[in-house]
Structures are given as structure tokens and as C-alpha cells.
Structure prediction request, 633 residues.
Amino acid sequence: MLRARATAARAKDPKKAMKRVLKLVFGERKLKFAFIVACILISSFSIVYSSNFLGLFIDECVFPLIGVEDPSWAPVIASLTQFAAIVSISVVFNYLLSRTMVGISQDTLYTIRVDMFRRLESLPVSYFDQNQHGTIMSRFSNDTDTLNQFISHALVQLMQSSITLVMVIVSMIMNSWIMTAVVALFALLTMKATSSIAKRSGRQFAAQQADLASVNGFIEEMMNGQRVIKVFCHEDQSRSDFAALNEKLRKSMTKGNTYANIMGPVTMNLGNLQYVALVIVGAVAVILSGGAASGYTIGLLAAFLQLSRSFSNNVNQISQQSNMVLLALAGAERIFELLDEESETDDGYVTLVNAKMDESGNLTETGEHTGLWAWKHPHHDGSPVSYVPLRGDIVMRDVDFGYVPDKMVLHDISLYAKPGQKIAFVGSTGAGKTTITNLLNRFYDIQDGKIRFDGININKIRKADLRHSLGMILQDTNLFTGTIKENIKFGKLEATDDEVIAAAKLANAHGFIMMMPDGYDTMITNNGESLSQGQRQLISIARAAIADPPVLVMDEATSSIDTHTEALVQSGMDRLMANRTVFVIAHRLSTVRNSNAIMVLDHGRIIERGDHDDLIAQRGVYYRLYTGAVELE
Ligand SMILES: Nc1ncnc2c1ncn2[C@@H]1O[C@H](COP(=O)(O)OP(=O)(O)OP(=O)(O)O)[C@@H](O)[C@H]1O
Ligand SMILES: [Mg+2]
Prediction:
């Protein structure tokens, strides 16, 4: 994985990524783009102008006045004023340029973050199985950050340096082609030297990135596992593991930086050499050509030296930025990868609507909130839309499923649950209990078989409506940052405070919530860190209760809680289960006993079914579980 990260540091198709970034940045801001180009042109012109100004000033203002008695200062002042005006204009436009770019880059990043988040929310659950959360997070943190640097600084720098470079070269050729040839020669030399250094440092860079990733990964893992580390007194071991990784990073960073650090001095010294060579060639040309008449003047030499400085500066700028650009484009590619990820598809056309009975006893759709729900089922064959009351009748027939195509987890699962019935799943860990519930709400699609909800194939039901009609209490409780009230309201955003309290009372959560310092307004952070396991479960039960779904799926948490809280959770769940179709994955036999049907799962197959008494009479796996011959879990 680390290897993959290291190679991923380079963009696969930088050109394509660059085009897309430019489209994002300037695609809908053509006017601003024109303004930016204009600003850059003005500022580049002012750089070239300043260099040439020096030459003209020396030749036309300074030399003619040397030794003159009572010199006239007017031309000096006029040309200095012109110079000051042009430089000031350029300063103003430079300021406007950076202001505009800050706005554009932040707007672009805002849009990118919105798009990424939208995409993320639209992705199927399986995406999160296949991609590590840390990797997804780094799209939002590192990759967006490098892209920010690129858009707000490097992009403009690069445009500016390139335009200035072209102007400088033209101006150099116009001034003196001999001296331009000297500059070209040194440019070639510098390019050769830097590219050979860059090649070496590039190789080190990949190693450096990989080592950095492993150090960061290690720290993250250690932070998450602090409790386990302390429990097993693993501090010394983890310290020495860290030291080893850190040492590896130190070595690769030292190597990488050695190359990177000689780059500067090499180009600087070559630049100095070029300066000396130009002075010699220029001076010889001025002396041999006899001065002003031939065009080779002291002023020209001075101007040229200035131009050659700007030439080197801009070449350096471009080569420095290009590394940053490659990194940023690699980040951009990863962001685009997320943006191009396939969203969860939904072909469902059966929807859940408010319904009422008309005089003749037929169901019809209504805009009012009647508390009576119906599936609105349009038919492809042209027959009229039918309305099926939402009852909570579930049938699974010959269902096969695997998370990955060639590894089946469930085989031939068939079962039914009539409205109001309670079906329990028991079986050892990994038997496939949670998996069955993941299929009911279409977190995953089945490979074979059929699942029907109130007689309708669930593939035809719009996913949002299907999920509305199914309450889920997941195995791992997840609470969000916010107040307890907000967390309960998660099940029904428009719920009133009274409804929240009623749901909490139903779930048996009211008592402990009232003991909290701020009651229902107590803030919860970090997935309810400050609450006990049982309290978190009670809140998640209240959250399901407030949604009041006809079908409820409960994946009992395996972790044990104290007997008092367990009794609370139990009675909360019992109350919630009343009058609903319930699928319960039970780890406590007390939950299972009063179910209408119990499915004993083993390796993805239902191996026994029946109610408690039937199964005890069968004297099979359930009997052995119940009598304690086999541990449940
Ligand atoms: N997201 C997933 N991707 C791939 N395989 C998975 C995934 N989730 C579960 N599995 C596999 O599917 C099988 C059934 O897992 P499942 O979570 O349904 O078990 P379970 O009966 O709920 O166990 P437990 O009692 O421990 O909760 C296991 O072999 C597991 O490794
Ligand atoms: Mg499970």
C-alpha cells in the first residue's frame, strides 16, 4: 500500500489533469481570466521596461551630463517620472492580480469540496469497504491543500514567469544577439546540471513520500489504539517501532534534501559565472565597437545585465514551480478520481406516498399527512397506477449474495415475515446475520433470488423510500457531534421536542438524559465518547423510535453492558418492537425467546428454523446454544 502511495505521488496524465483544473478555475470566469492575463502582461512589461530604462537612462540622461557645467535636470526628472508612473501602475495591477486570484482559488476550492462531499454521500456502501477512510480523508485534506497552493500561487507564477521570459528573450535579442548567445549557452549548461540533479532527487522523493506515509500511518494507528497499547504495556515496543520508521524517514529525507539543496547553489553559481562572462563579452564589444555610434554602449551593457538576471530568475521560477505543479496535478487527479466515482444507482420507481381511504374503501394518494402510507406502483404495461398499503410484509426467496463476486457469503436464504412478526437471527460470528439486514435496505444488491416488501420486488422501490420504511439499529452505534436532541431527531428531522421526549421515554433513555448536565441539550462529541455503551444504544433506539417505521431491523451490539442498563435496553427495545415487523439479530437468548420465528445461521445458510419450542424440541444447534453447550457469538 505504501508503494502504491509513493507512485501515486506522480500524475498519470498531467496534461489531462491540467486541462481539467484550468477548466474548473477559469471555465466559467472568462472575463476574470482576461483580466488576469492583462495584469500579467502589464507586470511583465514593466519588468522588461525597467531593465531597458536603466540603459536608456545611463546613455541619454547620465552620460550627456557628465562634466557639463550647469546641467539641465529637466530630462532626468521627466524620464524618472515616467519610470515611477509605469512601476506604480504595475504595482497596482500586481495587487489586483493577487486579490483576484485569491478569490478565484477559494471559490474553486469551495466548489470542489462541495462536489466531493456530494459525490461521497452518493457513493454506495461498498465504496467505503474498498477504500480506506484515511485515503478518502486525504482527498479532502492533503490533495485539496496542494491544489490550493497550485491555484493560488503556482499557476499565476508560472504564467507570469513564462510571459516575462518570452518578453525578456525578445528584448535581449533586440539589444544584442552576441550577448544573447552567451546567455543561451549558460541556459543550456544550467538545464543539463539541474535535470541530472532533479532526476536523482526525484527518485529520493518517491522514497521520502513512502516513508513519510508510514510514519504518519503509524502515529495515527498508535493514537487510535492508545488504550490497547496501555492495556498490553506495549509502549516500549511501539516506541522502538516508531524509532525504526523515523530513522528510515531521516535517511531518505537526508538523501533527498542533499540533492535538493545543491540545486540552489549550482544554479546560483552558474548564474554568477554567466554574469561575469556577459560583463567580459559586453565590455569587449563596447570597447572594440567604439561606443555610442555602433549601438554598443555602457547603457546597453547595464540593461542587458539586468535582463539576463531576470532571464535566470524566471527560468528558476519555472523549474521550481514545475515540481509543485506535478505534485498538485497528481493531487488533482486523485480528487477527480473521487468526483468521477460511480454514484449509487437507483432505478426504483415505486414510491412511498401519503394515502387515505375513499368512500368505496380504495386507497388514494393525498398531499396531507394522514399517517397512512402506501406504495405507489406505476406499471409499465399501461395499466393504472396501483396503491399498496405499507404493512411491513417481507419475503426473501432463494437469496444468494457475496460482497465480492467470487466469494459467496449467503446461500439460498428464504424466509418470510408477516406484518407485526418478529424474526430472530442467531448464529456464530461471521455467519452472515448483519449481511442479511444489509440486503433488506439495499446497501448491497443480491446476486440471485428475490426480496419482496409488501409484495413488491425491492429493486423496484426507490431506495430513499425503502430506507424510510425500514428502521435500522446498527451493530455499531454512531452518534454525531451535536446535542442529544439533535441526535435523536436524526430519525425525523421535523420532529417536535415532545416527540423527541416521547421517543426517548419509549427507548428508556429519558431517565439518564435528564441526569445529564444540560438534559436534551447536552453536547455529544466524538461518537458519544462521554456516554456509556448502553447509553449510546439507548439513544440510537430512541432515534429509530422517532422515525416510527413499520419494519425494524436491530443488530444487537455484542459488547456486554451492565445488567441494569441491559434490562433498560431490553425493555426499550421490546416497547419499540411492539406492532412492527422486526428482524432482530440477537446475541442474548432472552431477546430471541419470544420471537415468532428463529433462524439459525451457519456459514451463510439457514440451518434450523422455527419458534423457540420447536427448536428446543429439535435438539439441534439451537438447543445446544440454548442449553449452553455452545457459546452464542
Ligand atoms: N463489507 C464487507 N466486505 C467483504 N466481506 C464482508 C463484509 N462484511 C462482512 N463480510 C464477510 O461476510 C461474512 C458475514 O459477515 P457478517 O457481518 O454478516 O457476520 P455476522 O453474522 O453479523 O457476525 P457478528 O455476529 O460478528 O456480527 C463474514 O465472513 C465477513 O468476513
Ligand atoms: Mg454482525
In short: The chain has three domains: 2-176+296-339, 354-389, 394-626.
